[in-house]
Each structure stands twice: as structure tokens, then as C-alpha cells.
Design goal:
This protein has helices at residues 4-12, 22-29, 56-60, 68-74, 95-100, 106-116, 142-147, 160-165, 177-180, 192-203, 228-238, 311-322, 337-365; strands spanning 35-37, 43-45, 86-92, 122-129, 133-139, 186-190, 212-218, 245-250, 253-258, 263-267, 292-295, 304-308, 326-328. By secondary structure, the protein is an alpha+beta fold. The protein has one domain (4-70, 85-223, 275-365). The strands form three sheets. It has an eight-stranded mixed sheet with strand order 5-4-6-7-11-12-3-13, with helices on both faces. α4 packs across α10 (192-203). The chain is globular. It binds flavin-adenine dinucleotide (FAD) and iron/sulfur cluster (3 copies). Residues 7, 11, 17-23, 43, 61-63, 197 line the site of one iron/sulfur cluster.
Length: 372
């Protein structure tokens, strides 16, 4: 039976750990408690003695192929970038949502709608802490969902809250104050790697993944590290002071919006060295295993490109639209909007896959040991 020990050898040592946190979230959630996430976001043995060698952390790792076929089958995945039921361009109808959001605020609007309709009790999101940090967060009120809108890059949310929330779900739940909240209908917002890990748990019917009722995936070209050096580097290229920055966003480039309303852009090529190492080997751009995928790419400023991938996702979007939570771009403004958006996402998606294949081939050609 392969265990976390093998994940260290096969995934972490070659530098391929996406730090999605799925392995540690699961191990903690079902109260084995052998793994933890260290301060750098890396899963490590917290208490090796507690490992019962169940092997499940290994199976659900998105870097391990064991459950790929079954995961694809359950998602009705198809070439070239997963199931696409419908592509559209939307935005929130509420100004207060759009003002905080990365793009059109559709993720936030959909979450607020699900709350209002009493379809979910909580949402795993990622809330800002300072200019460059985020932390995983289980939002249980509309106000908390709104506070979590937008995008910062540094910390992936690692599904930590999933773990915290359901730490003792199957065993000593009464000791866990979070579980006492009785949250059994939760939405997960995450990057493609996080969604994949969760889907693998669902393939195996593992607690606590059964509590995740809908997966909202974000397009993702990579996670970037904004240390002090990197902040200075970006400020120098863009000629800005971070104190004057209102928000920043990632599409096919980094877009920095200043408090004055003006914008600066930085090419992603200038940020390659800041990208998390494992992201270079990742082939999922458009969150292929989510119920709905969201990104700014392909949409005009202030709007979100949205792909429904499952009947559930499509129904939730339709319901949110009929409740006037979200609106679609007017056809007369841009008759080609949907096909344009899909074309852009496909192009970027295929480029990411090609790059990942190339990088993996080079990795196999050389025996690299990266610092982990
Ligand atoms: C690391 C990362 C890379 C991205 N790369 C691209 C890209 O290359 N191209 C592109 O078009 N779009 C990319 N996106 C998605 C884009 O930034 C927007 O999140 C998306 O368009 C939805 O916009 P919105 O205004 O509808 O969402 P909003 O209403 O602003 O909601 C965004 C939601 O995402 C959550 N969130 C924010 N950061 C994280 C994080 N690090 N991990 C998990 N959840 C988070 C927030 O809590 C919030 O619930 C990326 C997002 C992330 C987090
Ligand atoms: S108990 Fe199971 S999930 Fe936890 S580290 Fe060991 S093998 Fe992995
Ligand atoms: S990719 Fe995710 S599941 Fe795999 S070892 Fe890294 S954190 Fe764990
Ligand atoms: S590129 Fe995005 S989806 Fe892929 S490993 Fe990095 S953070 Fe995860």
C-alpha cells in the first residue's frame, strides 16, 4: 500500500506537489491526524505514529494517476478541456459585489444566491489578509462571502478549512465546534488542482467530501509568490508603489488597478520566476472537473467568462439569472461573445497542456531533485 511516504518520494521530491492540501485535509478530516500543513503550505507528517497506512492520501493526490479514469468518467470529461455544456459571459447585478470582485463578481453572486435560496450552509473561499496574503476561510454568512470576493495570489487555500471544519466528522464530531454548526451543504471555490483532489475524494465516497455540494473552479495559469523581493521587482517594472494599488487581477497578463483608476499591466513572461515550481507541470487551466468554471479570460473588463460543466452548474446559473443575481452581456453589444470566450479559453488551455507535457518530458529526461 502506497502512503504519504510515497507522495514525498514521487510527488514532493521531484517538485510536483501542487500544495492543494488535499492529502492533509483528508487525513485530518477523518481524524487520522498523521499529516499537517507546515508554514510554507507544504503537507508534512505531523505525527507519523498516527499513520494507519490507509493509502488514501496517495490515491486522492491530483498528481497521482490512480483514479484518473474514474474521476473523468464521473465528470463526463471529454477532450480537449473537459465537459462544456455552455459558455457565457456574465456579471453580478450588484455594484457592491462588482466593486470588490476580480472580474464580474459572478462567483460571489452565485454563492450569495445559493445562501439566499438556502441551498448551502457555508462556502469554502479564500479571504484576503493584507495586500498579498489570503487564508482559507469557511464563510457562513453573506457578509463573509462578500468580504472574500476578489483575488490575491500568495497563499492557495489548501482546503485547510475543509479539514478544520470536518476534522472529526466521522468520529468524535461532538468535540469539534465547527461540526457542531452542522454544515453538510458546502460550496467549494478553488483552483483546478484543489477541485481535482476533492473530486477524487468523491470518487471514493470519502468523508468529508460528501458535504461539498458544488465545486466552483477558477481558471488558473499558476500561483505566484509575492515575497518582498518580488513585490519590489513588480513595482519596478510597472513603475508603481503598492500603496497606490486598489486591486490586481490575472488574465493573460497581470493587471494592476491603481486607486486613481488607471491600470498597469505586466506580462506573465516577466513573472515566470515567481510562479510556484509545480504549476509549470500542471495541465488544467479551466478547472475541468468543476460544476462551473470562472475566469476573466475572454471577457471584457468587469465581466466573467463562465463555463457550465454539469447539469447542476447550469441549473444554478439559470436560477441565479432568473433571480436577477447575475446578468449576461447583451448580445447586441457583442454577438460573438460566447464563441470568442470559449475560443480564448481553449487556446490558453491547450497551451498550458502543451507546456506541461514539454516540462514533464524534460523532467523525466533529467533526474532533478528540487528543494521542497
Ligand atoms: C491563483 C489564481 C490564478 C488565476 N489565474 C487566472 C488566469 O490565468 N486567467 C483567468 O482568466 N482567471 C484566473 N483566475 C480567476 C480570476 O482571478 C477570478 O477569480 C475569476 O475570473 C472569477 O472572478 P469573479 O469576479 O467572478 O469572482 P469573485 O466574485 O471575485 O470571487 C472570487 C472567488 O475566488 C476566491 N479566491 C480568490 N483567491 C483564491 C485562491 N488563491 N484560492 C482559492 N480561491 C480563491 C475568493 O474567495 C472568491 O470567493 C485565477 C484565480 C486564482 C485564485
Ligand atoms: S493515515 Fe492514511 S491518509 Fe493519513 S498519512 Fe497515513 S496513509 Fe495518508
Ligand atoms: S499535490 Fe496536493 S495531494 Fe498531492 S502531495 Fe501535494 S498537497 Fe498533497
Ligand atoms: S497552476 Fe493552478 S491549478 Fe495548477 S497546480 Fe498551480 S495553482 Fe494548482
Amino acid at each position: 500500500m502506497k502512503t504519504f511516504f510515497n507522495l514525498v518520494q514521487e510527488v514532493q521530491k521531484p517538485g510536483l506537489c501542487f500544495r492543494c492540501g488535499g492529502c492533509a485535509a483528508f487525513c485530518t478530516a477523518i481524524n487520522y491526524g498523521a499529516l499537517e500543513i507546515n508554514d510554507n503550505g507544504k503537507p508534512v507528517y505531523g505525527d507519523l505514529e498516527k499513520c494507519i497506512e490507509c493509502g488514501l492520501c496517495y490515491s486522492i493526490c491530483p498528481e497521482i494517476n490512480d483514479l484518473d479514469e474514474e474521476t473523468k468518467r464521473q465528470a463526463a470529461w471529454s477532450e480537449p478541456m473537459g465537459r462544456v455544456i455552455e459558455t457565457t459571459v456574465l456579471r453580478s447585478t450588484q455594484k457592491k459585489v462588482r466593486e470588490r470582485a476580480s472580474d464580474g463578481g459572478v462567483v460571489t453572486a452565485v454563492l450569495l444566491h445559493l445562501f439566499e435560496r438556502n441551498r448551502i450552509d457555508g462556502a469554502i473561499v479564500s479571504r484576503p489578509v493584507g495586500k498579498f496574503q489570503r487564508e482559507p476561510y469557511l464563510a457562513t454568512t453573506p457578509e463573509e462571502i462578500l468580504e472574500s470576493a476578489g483575488l490575491f495570489f500568495d497563499t492557495a487555500h489548501r482546503m485547510k478549512r475543509l479539514s478544520d471544519e470536518y476534522m472529526t466528522f466521522s468520529t468524535i464530531g461532538e468535540l469539534d465546534p465547527m461540526v457542531k454548526k452542522g454544515l453538510k451543504r458546502v460550496a467549494l471555490v478553488g483552483t483546478p488542482c484543489q477541485i481535482r483532489s476533492l473530486r477524487k475524494m468523491q470518487v471514493l465516497n470519502l468523508i468529508p467530501s460528501d458535504a461539498i455540494k458544488i465545486c466552483l473552479g477558477l481558471f488558473c495559469s499558476g500561483n505566484y509568490t509575492f515575497g518582498i523581493k518580488e513585490q519590489q521587482y513588480l513595482a519596478d517594472i510597472a513603475g508603481i508603489s503598492w500603496n497606490d494599488v486598489a486591486k490586481f487581477n490575472l488574465k493573460d497578463k497581470l493587471i494592476i488597478t491603481m486607486k486613481s483608476g488607471s491600470q498597469k499591466t505586466i506580462s506573465l513572461d516577466d513573472m515566470v520566476s515567481m510562479k510556484r515550481y509545480a504549476c509549470h507541470y500542471c495541465s488544467d487551466y479551466s478547472a475541468e472537473f468543476s460544476d462551473i468554471s470562472f475566469g476573466g479570460l475572454g471577457a471584457q473588463e468587469g465581466w466573467t467568462t463562465v463555463i457550465s460543466r454539469t447539469p447542476l452548474g447550469r441549473a444554478v446559473l439559470a436560477d441565479s439569472r432568473s433571480a436577477d443575481r447575475i446578468e449576461q452581456i447583451k448580445i447586441e453589444d457583442n454577438p460573438e461573445f460566447a464563441s470568442h470566450a470559449l475560443k480564448e479559453v481553449r487556446k490558453t488551455s491547450l497551451a498550458k497542456k502543451k507546456n506541461a507535457r514539454y516540462k514533464r518530458r524534460s523532467l523525466m529526461g533529467q533526474s532533478v531533485q528540487v528543494k521542497i
